Every structure is written in structure tokens, then in C-alpha cells.
């Protein structure tokens, strides 16, 4: 029995990310309409969380009106543009009208802020000498313990040593 070719095609190509998920169980307010621009809506965020790109945007009655196209502006008062569905027009919405999003399509703001510096403590001495490599010594091709000899310069396996002008 041959095992060649098993497992091909699994997990490739993103598999079904673009399907219609239907209306969510609940929606939370994401922002209010500021303006319309070139057929898109520009919303000012009212939420402390950040939406995914291409996250569906809904009215309060859970009717989808479009998807998030871009997120821009300062991090503490960001805005977003919404690409409307083909049957929608930007003129049909009133200024300051609220819009909603599935709470599962939001990320915490802390994900986009710099991490606080790690507390300084006693330094831990690492084993392995130069470079801190777990193999011990040597960079490329060095440290031929178990399974060594990988990469460049490892071992004198197949083929000769290349060009040597008659010397050994």
C-alpha cells in the first residue's frame, strides 16, 4: 500500500470563508453615519472594540447593508468605510443613524496597542555558548549531533567535495 499523495488538498485555499452566514443571533452598535463618499458610508466608531475587515454591517433589525471596507483615523476615535450591498444606496441613510455588527466580528483594542515592557528580573544564563543554539556550538552546518549534517556544509555524503585541484 502506497502512502504517497495522502492528505493533499486539505486546508488549502481558505475553504469556504466567503459563504453567507445569515443574520447573527445578536448585534451590537458599532457606530453612526458621518457621511457618504463615492457610494460608500463613512461611520464613526462608538465601540471600544475593533471590527474585522469585511465584517458584515447591519441595521438594528439585523438586515445586512454592507461590509467593512477600510478602517482609518486615530486609534482612540477611528472611523470605517462600509461598502454597500448592490441593492443599497448611500443616500437612503440619515446622518447619525446607528449601525450594528455581530459581536463575534470584533477584536479587543489591546490587540492593536503596544505591549507593556516585560518586568525586569534576574538574567537567566542560557546554555549553548555562542549564539544560544540548542545544538551547542557552531552556526551553519555545525553541531552534528543526532540528525545533524543538515543544511550547508554538513557531512561529506553524496557527491564529492566539489573542485579540489587534485588535493584530498
List keywords for this structure.
elongated, 168 residues, six-stranded antiparallel barrel, two-stranded antiparallel sheet, mainly beta, 8 strands
Tell me what you see in this structure.
The protein is mainly beta and 168 residues long. Helices cover 0% and strands 26% of the residues. The protein has no helices and eight strands. It has strands at 28-37, 40-45, 49-51, 56-58, 64-72, 79-84, 98-101, 106-108. The protein has a six-stranded antiparallel barrel. It has a two-stranded antiparallel ribbon with strand order 3-8. Strand 1 and strand 2 (40-45) form a beta hairpin. It is elongated.
Shape: elongated
Task: Report the average pLDDT across residues.
Answer: 78
User: Which residues form runs of ≥5 with pLDDT under 50?
Assistant: none
Fraction of residues in H or I helices = under 10%
Helix-strand sequence: EEEEEEEE
Count of DSSP strands: 8
Please outline the major beta sheet.
Answer: 6 strands, antiparallel, barrel
Amino acid at each position: 500500500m502506497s502512502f504517497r499523495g495522502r492528505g493533499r488538498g486539505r486546508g488549502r485555499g481558505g475553504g469556504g470563508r466567503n459563504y453567507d452566514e445569515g443574520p447573527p443571533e445578536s448585534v451590537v452598535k458599532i457606530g453612526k453615519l458621518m457621511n457618504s463618499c463615492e457610494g460608500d458610508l463613512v461611520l464613526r466608531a462608538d465601540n471600544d472594540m475593533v471590527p474585522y475587515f469585511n465584517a458584515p454591517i447591519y441595521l438594528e433589525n439585523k438586515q445586512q447593508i454592507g461590509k467593512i471596507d477600510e478602517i482609518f483615523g486615530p486609534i482612540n476615535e477611528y472611523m470605517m468605510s462600509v461598502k454597500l450591498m448592490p441593492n443599497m444606496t448611500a443616500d437612503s441613510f440619515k446622518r447619525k443613524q446607528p449601525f450594528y455588527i455581530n459581536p463575534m466580528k470584533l477584536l479587543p483594542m489591546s490587540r492593536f496597542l503596544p505591549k507593556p515592557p516585560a518586568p525586569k528580573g534576574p538574567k537567566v544564563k542560557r546554555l549553548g555558548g555562542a549564539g544560544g543554539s540548542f545544538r551547542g556550538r557552531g552556526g551553519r552546518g555545525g553541531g552534528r549531533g543526532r540528525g545533524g549534517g543538515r543544511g550547508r556544509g554538513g557531512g561529506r555524503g553524496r557527491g564529492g567535495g566539489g573542485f579540489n585541484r587534485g588535493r584530498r
